[in-house]
Design brief:
Blueprint: E1 2-10, E2 15-23, E3 29-34, E4 62-65, E5 79-84, E6 86-91, H1 112-124, H2 128-144, E7 147-152, H3 165-171, E8 179-181, H4 188-196, E9 200-203, H5 205-210, H6 218-223, E10 227-230, H7 240-255, H8 269-285, E11 300-305, H9 312-321, E12 326-328, H10 335-343
Parallel strand pairs: 1-5, 6-7, 8-9, 9-10
Antiparallel strand pairs: 1-2, 2-3, 4-7, 5-11, 11-12
Helix pairs in contact: 8-9
This protein binds zinc ion.
């Protein structure tokens, strides 16, 4: 049993103040005490990420647990905020090997299709041992940025979002167990149909932008109450904060409006998006539901906040959009992340 104390614990609907969270050996939250006087502001000096890997099953993917907890982490005494680690609902680890190497213009009208040829070349160059090394390296890196579990896609399969959604809905038992990746070309009518079937859409914004794909109509999907998950996909971006930030930004650029992806009763896009993508991501990976509740997965990220005047929701806005006063604790697998933490 491990115990963590925090000034604020993220829950489904809000924040619990001054909590003591007990985590059982199976990796679930065993108990939550609130108001126990455990959260002195500014007590941020400990290495405080606690995660536990929870395996999941999926028809199209293998869910690979990752841990954001470095092997030598000292159990936390006290942190500022505890939030659920982000599920990574769509990932090809091997594609990280060509990240950055496919940006040079070939002079022949580069597109997703020219990138795909390069990607196939990368597959051909990999044997099983190289793939394992690539995956291990990548998982350490994405864990350091706050992902808590990942759905790895083993081969370059056709993305569901690129097949006609009407055909899929007519020929497959699409329901809440289904996740459609990208769905960037879905029509309004198709989104209405998917929302009625309670399917999840996994949006991989940094990859879609990098490949010159299209833009998922997240505003329409949100208005329909659609379930959302995120994925690092090609792994040009490893940080769930970047994915969430650009979900909001692409809407701002298209509409010339701000603060679009908030939820009823919560005007803060940072915490609204984080909750929504965790809930949808757990669905995509087949993980137990529940945020900040007994029995929920204890894949928790500890967040340090150096501005004691900030509310918990303001701290999440800062974490997703600015990172002026907030940072992840203990995410040490990445040297650059370490440097950033030490400079702070
Ligand atoms: Zn993919």
């Amino acid at each position: 049993m491990q115990t963590l104390r925090a000034r604020w614990l993220m829950t489904e609907s809000g924040w619990l103040p001054d909590v003591t969270v007990s985590i059982d050996d199976a990796g679930a939250i065993a108990a939550i005490e609130s108001g126990a006087g455990s959260g002195a502001p500014g007590a941020t000096g400990t290495n405080a990420v606690a995660t536990s890997a929870v395996a999941a099953n999926g028809a199209a993917t293998n869910a690979v647990p990752t841990s954001a907890c470095p092997a030598n982490a000292t159990p936390a005494a006290q942190v500022d905020l505890l939030i659920p680690a982000m599920p990574n609902a769509h990932c090809h680890a091997f594609q990280h090997r060509i990240a950055g190497l496919t940006e040079r213009a070939s002079g022949t009208g580069d597109s997703f299709w020219t990138w795909r040829e390069r990607m196939y070349e990368a597959i051909d160059a990999l044997d099983a041992a190289a793939l394992e090394t690539a995956a291990t390296t990548l998982y350490r890196r994405i864990a350091a940025f706050g992902y808590g579990a990942v759905a790895e896609v083993e081969a370059a399969r056709a993305h569901l979002g690129t097949t006609p959604i009407d055909w899929l809905c007519a020929n497959a038992p699409v329901d809440a167990h289904w996740t459609l990746v990208h769905a960037t070309h879905a029509t309004g009518a198709e989104l209405e149909r998917l929302a009625a079937l309670d399917a999840t859409v996994c949006v991989c914004t940094t990859t879609e932008a990098n490949l010159g794909d299209s833009q998922f109509d997240l505003q329409r999907w949100s208005a329909l109450g659609g379930s959302l998950s995120i994925g690092s996909d090609s792994n040009v971006g490893l940080d769930p904060r970047e994915e969430l930030r650009w979900l909001e930004y692409q809407g701002r650029l298209a509409r010339r409006e701000r603060s679009l992806l908030v939820s009823a009763g919560n005007p803060h896009p940072g915490s609204a998006l984080w909750r929504r993508a965790v809930a949808g991501g757990r669905r995509s990976l087949g993980l137990p539901a529940g945020i900040g509740a007994v029995g929920a997965p204890a894949q928790l990220l500890a967040i340090a906040c150096e501005d004691s005047a900030m509310s918990a929701d303001e701290a999440l806005d800062d974490l997703v959009f600015a990172q002026r006063a907030t940072r992840l604790h203990g995410a040490s697998a990445s040297a650059s992340a370490n440097e950033r933490i030490e400079r702070n």
